[in-house]
Design goal:
Strand order of the largest sheet: 3-2-1-4-5-7-6
Helix content: 25-40%
Number of domains: 2
CATH architecture of the largest domain: 3-Layer(aba) Sandwich
Radius of gyration: 18 Å
Largest sheet: 7 strands, mixed
Shape: globular
CATH class of the largest domain: Alpha Beta
Mean pLDDT: 91
Length: 237
């Protein structure tokens, strides 16, 4: 039985250039039934590590991290088609309103190190081999602030069990949120997760972004509106 999905799959009208990217470029980097989860074969070249971002939004963090780390393979998961289209724009450099070239490819300064899954993350977990992933990013997930919706929050025992399986021992789970309820929920839920250890030693370790952080549009909006994000880091033990 397929898990019930809560959230939007599409928002405002996707204009021509981005629609073309979804139709012609996404299939080149999309994870499908025949995708082989192998560091030697999954990308256009062998990669040293695998990073997974769950719910990459507009793709700013994923695009920025993959550019800064050309020897790492990145898997991005996002069901919201507008966000997927924006990531494709960032990867290819195709701007809104421009004619899309016949042969769409990633920008010359990039390596072919991003793969995309545009469906519910829970459907992908079973396909990923145990210990395959070195780091997982869960950045500003939907907080589902109402108590009756708490079961919809991604940080829950069932999902953490799946993450513990696919993250290698010593690997990292990073969670960022600016929502007061989700901060408390994350701390409480992760405290009860035996497979993960909070790495923070001082308050600065979780109130400041990691050194290699790539800021997102959502993060900038939160700061403008006076909401201070926190950055949890947990080690797979």
């Amino acid at each position: 039985m397929l898990p019930k999905f809560f959230g939007r799959r599409k928002g405002r009208v996707i204009h021509k250039a981005k629609s073309t990217l979804l139709a012609r470029f996404l299939p080149k980097i999309k994870i499908g039934e025949n995708t082989v989860f192998d560091k030697e074969k999954m990308f256009g070249f062998p990669v040293q590590k695998i990073y997974l971002e769950i719910g990459f939004g507009d793709g700013e963090h994923l695009a920025g991290m993959s550019l800064k780390n050309p020897d790492i393979g990145f898997i991005g998961i996002e069901v919201f088609q507008n966000g997927v289209a924006n990531l494709l724009k960032l990867l290819t450099g195709v701007a809104d309103g421009n004619n899309v070239p016949e042969n769409i490819s990633i920008q010359p300064e990039r390596t072919d190190n991003v793969r995309v899954y545009d469906d519910d993350a829970r459907l992908l977990f079973s396909k990923i081999p145990a210990g395959f992933v070195d780091k997982v990013f869960l950045l500003f997930p939907d907080p589902w602030p109402k108590k009756r919706h708490s079961a919809r929050r991604f940080v829950n025992p069932e999902n953490l069990k799946e993450l513990a399986r696919i993250i290698r021992h010593g690997g990292i789970l990073q969670i960022a949120t600016d929502h007061k309820i989700y901060k408390a929920w994350t701390m409480r839920t992760m405290h009860g997760a035996p497979d993960f250890r909070w790495t923070a030693k001082t308050s600065a370790d979780w109130r400041c972004p990691p050194a290699d952080w790539v800021e997102t549009k959502y993060q900038r909006k939160a700061l403008r509106e006076g909401r201070k994000p926190v950055f949890f880091e947990y080690e797979r033990v």
